[in-house]
Amino acid sequence: MEILEVLAGHGDERDADGFGVSWIAERLGREKSQVSRALRALELEGMVERDPLTRRYRLGWRLFALAARTQHARLVRVATPYVRHLAAAFDEDAYLCVLRGSMVLTLLSVPSSRAYHRVWEGVSIPVIMAAAGRSLLAEWEEGRVRELLRASLPSGLDSAVGSEDSWLADLAHVRSAGYAISDVELEDSQAGVSAPVRDHRGLIAAAISVSITRRTSQERLHEMGAVVAGEARELSAALGLPPAGAPVPLARQAGRAL
User: Fold this and answer.
1) pTM (global) more than 0.85
2) What backbone torsions phi and psi does residue 179 show, to the nearest 5 degrees?
3) What are 171-226's pLDDT values in tens digits?
4) What is the distance, to the nearest Å, from the Cα of residue 113 to the centroid of all Cα atoms in its chain?
5) Is residue 162 a contact partner of residue 181, using CB atoms and an 8 Å limit?
6) Is 182 helix (H, G, I), strand (E, B) or coil?
7) For helices 32-44 and 21-28, what crossing angle results, to 10°?
8) Per-residue pLDDT tens for 145-168?
9) What are the chain's domains?
C-alpha cells in the first residue's frame, strides 16, 4: 500500500513519467531489493506498470479499473449477469461501457473462451473509435455528432472512422432497431454489436457490446444485434426503466421539464 501511495504522487504532470525503484526505496526508507520484489509482484497483478524504456513505474490499469467500477458500482453489479450471458451465448468478449465526455470508458469486460484477450477495463478511448460509440451517441443531435466526427484524431487513425452519413444512418438504426453493427476500429475483430442501456429516466446511461472475432454474415450479425438489444432492454428494466407505455412518475416528468 505504501508503494501505491508513493506512485499516486502529487497528481500533476510531475508524475507522468513515473518513478524509479531507487527513488521509491529512498522515499520509503526501504531496501532497493525489497521494493523491487514488491513492484514485480504488483506488476503481475496489474496494480502497477513499468515503462519498458525508462524502467519507471506508475499506477497500473487494474487500479483505474477498480476506481471506475467503484464509481459505477450499482451499474456494474446489475449489468454483470447480462454481460456474462452475452459472452457465453456467442463465445465472444462482451463489455459494459459508459460515455465520459468524448471518450468511452469500459467498466466491465467478460472474456470468451479464446486464450488471448486485450485488457479494456478502466481504459478510455475516443467514442468515435469504439464499438459501443454508436449506441452511446444514439440520441445526440445531428450537428453535435458531425462536430465530433470532424474533431482531429491521432495520426494514422483518421481513415478508421466511418463517414458522417454512415454514422448518422447507424445512429438512426439504433433508435429504430435498438442496436448498432459497426466495424471495430481498435480491435482485431470482424465487427462489433452494441445496444444502449437506459436508466430510470429513459436516458442512455451505458452500452453493452460484443466484439465479433469470427467471420459472420450480415444476417447473423443482425440476429446477434437483436439478442444484444434484448439484453439491453432487460438490463434497462433492472435499472428502473418503466415498461413501454407505462406512465412516467410525476417526479420524473418534472425532472425532464427542467
Assistant:
1) no
2) -155, 165
3) 999 999 999 998 765 556 678 999 999 998 899 999 999 998 888 889 999 999 99
4) 20
5) no
6) strand
7) 110
8) 888 888 755 555 544 456 788 889
9) 2-59 (1.10.10.10), 65-238 (3.30.450.40)
